[in-house]
Specification:
Helices cover 34% and strands 21% of the residues. It is an alpha/beta fold and 220 residues long. The chain has one domain: Rossmann fold (3-Layer(aba) Sandwich). A seven-stranded mixed β-sheet has the order 3-2-1-4-5-7-6, sandwiched between helices. The protein is globular and about 45 Å long. Bound molecules: S-adenosylmethionine (SAM). S-adenosylmethionine binds next to helix 3 and strand 2.
């Protein structure tokens, strides 16, 4: 039986890890958010699901392509929400980013309200990933995109080793694999969520081979 998983360490340790050690890994998803951003009408909204302490929205805010967007990070566990808010309030984007309590299975957002949704390293933390995928698709505007990155259980051993070395440099334990999905399992989740026709799953080379990219494009 799956359940919503906390991070291995507490919110302060997670924040130190996420903000100090993960630069190259962060850039993979942030660059995709910049490249794939659609030009849609209405209030512009970027959402990060399972935001941890808000590292991703803060990086995205630094890109001119996201000027004029409201940026929201949703997080399930209260200590992460609190730590994320402290960090955002101490930073230069405090007026643009909100870190809010929110469950990936039932995002507190109206239907068709989000231009770009990112969910990084969170799918495997969720009790019901199929329910969450459906909810991510629900909140996308027509023409909007969800960019879901997650480490995979069938990652190449040498990439996993390099990733764990990066974690060890800031005193973070090696990543665990049991709860993560293989590529075949992700394909099955997407089919079960009835999203196969609007999704693609990619695996890139280098560090990106640690995980997969699942794109969900809501038809315009
Ligand atoms: C490995 S962290 C990734 C954090 C952030 N996305 C990043 O890449 O730095 C996964 C996060 O998902 C959060 N989480 C777990 N269950 C959740 C749920 N049901 N809804 C929202 N967030 C959840 C955890 O608390 C944790 O902060």
């Amino acid at each position: 039986m799956r359940k919503n998983l906390r991070n291995l360490h507490d919110a302060d340790q997670y924040d130190a890890y996420a903000s100090q050690a993960m630069g190259p890994w962060d850039e993979l998803v942030v660059q995709r958010a910049v490249e794939l951003k659609p030009e849609l009408a209405g209030d512009r909204c970027f959402v990060d699901v399972g935001t941890g302490t808000g590292v991703i929205p803060e990086l995205v805010a630094g890109y001119g392509e996201y000027d004029g967007f409201s940026l929201i990070g949703f997080e399930y566990f209260d200590d992460m929400v609190e730590r994320g808010n402290q960090r955002i309030q101490a930073g230069v984007y405090k007026d643009r980013i909100k870190i809010l309590k929110g469950d990936a299975h039932a995002l507190p957002l109206p239907d068709a309200s989000v231009d770009v949704l990112v969910c990084r390293a969170t799918l495997h933390h969720l009790e019901k990933p199929v329910v969450a995928l459906k909810d991510m698709a629900r909140v996308l505007k027509p023409g909007g995109i969800a960019i879901i990155h997650d480490p995979r259980r069938d990652a190449p051993a040498e990439i996993l080793k390099a990733f764990n070395e990066m974690r060890a440099k800031v005193g973070y334990s090696p990543t665990t694999l049991d709860e993560k999905f293989t590529l075949d399992e992700v394909r099955a989740l997407v089919r079960e969520a009835d999203l196969a026709a609007v999704s693609e799953i990619n695996v890139a080379d280098g560090m990106a081979a640690l995980g997969f990219e699942l794109l969900i494009r809501k038809p315009a």
